[in-house]
């Protein structure tokens, strides 16, 4: 059963009659990690904003757990490319922030926040100031904050785009561990092809202007890592390289089209 479903969704650019997306249909089920990839201008961020409820579709319908998406909600946890943390709060306070807004008692919200910080590898960092953290650690706090609110799905908007290659690979491994242990379906957009192929159980390639789905792929590599295969072994395997090159070709074709 799909938790999230988009049916023939179209979207316009703000203040414009031009379409940003056209005829987008997809489903996100309980054990999926859906990644959306495409060239600049293909509507990736617009699509995430529609699912998050930050914008409304011009046509079609988006439902979550059977109910129409009509605005932002706690049932969708969002992690942005920029960490969006509150610099005057500690790591623990940032992780618990969403629950504080909902009026959850302090002891309860801090207990939940501590569990999620441990899940993302930040146990012992609870009382650090945000400015004391690295970029990768800040993104971990953002993921913990999104998970603390116990959303139905997790939405990530190019969360590792500002990280260097080594830290980025660690962050990819972390995300797969979080996906496996939290049992939360994930919807992620990225412009990085190897990242998309590695993480996705289901890869959606967008192209065109307006953005349309040009290909859908079911991929095994993230599940293989989650099952215990080392990351470098996964990424150096012939089938991974072949999939990466196929996706690269499709993205280039979408860009030139």
Structure description:
By secondary structure, this protein is of the alpha/beta class. It folds into 2 domains: 4-75 and 153-256, P-loop containing nucleotide triphosphate hydrolases (Rossmann fold); 82-150. The protein has helices at residues 44-52, 91-95, 97-101, 106-119, 135-148, 165-182, 193-199, 221-226, 231-236, 238-256; strands at 4-12, 19-28, 33-37, 59-64, 67-68, 76-79, 153-157, 186-190, 202-207, 212-218. The strands form 2 sheets. It has a 6-stranded mixed β-sheet, sandwiched between helices. It has a 4-stranded antiparallel β-sheet with strand order 2-1-4-5, covered by helices on one side.
Which features does this protein show?
2 domains, cell membrane, six-stranded mixed β-sheet, 257 residues, transport, 10 helices, ATP hydrolysis activity, Rossmann fold, alpha/beta, ATP-binding, globular, 40% helix, four-stranded antiparallel β-sheet
Mean pLDDT reading: 91
Number of helices: 10
Shape summary: globular
Q: What's the arrangement of strands in the largest beta sheet?
A: 6-7-8-3-9-10
* Alpha carbon gap, first and last residue: 35 Å
Biggest sheet record: 6 strands, mixed
**Rg from Cα:** 18 Å
Under the CATH scheme, which architecture of the largest domain would be assigned? 3-Layer(aba) Sandwich
Pfam families: ABC_tran (PF00005)
InterPro entries: AAA+_ATPase, ABC_transporter-like_ATP-bd, ABC_transporter-like_CS, ABC_transporter_ATP-bind, P-loop_NTPase
Protein name: Taurine transport system ATP-binding protein
Family: Belongs to the ABC transporter superfamily.
